[in-house]
Design a protein that fits this description.
about 160 residues, four-stranded mixed sheet, 6 strands, single chain, Glutaredoxin, two-stranded antiparallel ribbon, alpha+beta
């Protein structure tokens, strides 16, 4: 399994096309999620934003990667996606460049993240939009499938236990 240090050095593009790494968003707890605007799970944006507002000043970084691989549920341009996230959900956490999470053209970060097993012991492809990977300062990665909401007690307690302040 990749360590958080390795994961934090994998390059990707932000919404403006600039190269970034997870290290650019801090060294605390990082929640990586593949997002989509036209999915039944899209209301999870509200819970993600609440987590960001509650724990952001204590070291939580949430980053969203738009992905159109699941039934074309993120068809918009980056400009449309950013406007939707800001106006509909008040998203303040970074929405990064649209990527692929599965297949041979998957983003390098997701190729590494998918090696992480979920709580049922299963690794492999991302199941759907809003799959969550919690990267802890210790290097551990915990994986939560899309149906697990961001405000699930398992995610919240994991974040709280691993924040610095």
């Amino acid at each position: 399994m990749s360590s958080a240090m390795d994961l934090r050095t994998i390059e990707f593009l932000d919404a403006d096309g600039a190269e970034k790494t997870l290290a650019d968003y801090g060294s605390g707890v990082t929640l990586v999620v593949n997002v989509a605007s036209k999915c039944g799970l899209t209301p999870q944006y509200e819970q993600l934003e609440q987590l960001q507002r509650t724990y952001g000043d204590r070291g939580l970084s949430i980053v969203g990667f738009p992905c159109n691989q699941f039934m074309g549920q993120e068809p918009g341009s980056m400009e449309e996606i950013l406007e939707y996230c800001a106006t509909t959900w008040g998203v303040s956490f970074p929405i990064l460049d649209k990527i692929r999470v599965n297949g041979s053209h998957a983003a390098p970060l997701y190729k590494a993240l998918k090696k992480t097993k979920d709580h049922a012991g299963l690794a492999g492809p991302v199941a759907w939009n809003f799959e969550k990977f919690v990267i802890l300062p210790s290097g551990e990665v915990e994986r939560f499938r899309p149906q697990t909401t961001p405000d699930d007690p398992a995610i919240v307690s994991l974040i709280e236990k691993n924040l610095t302040a």
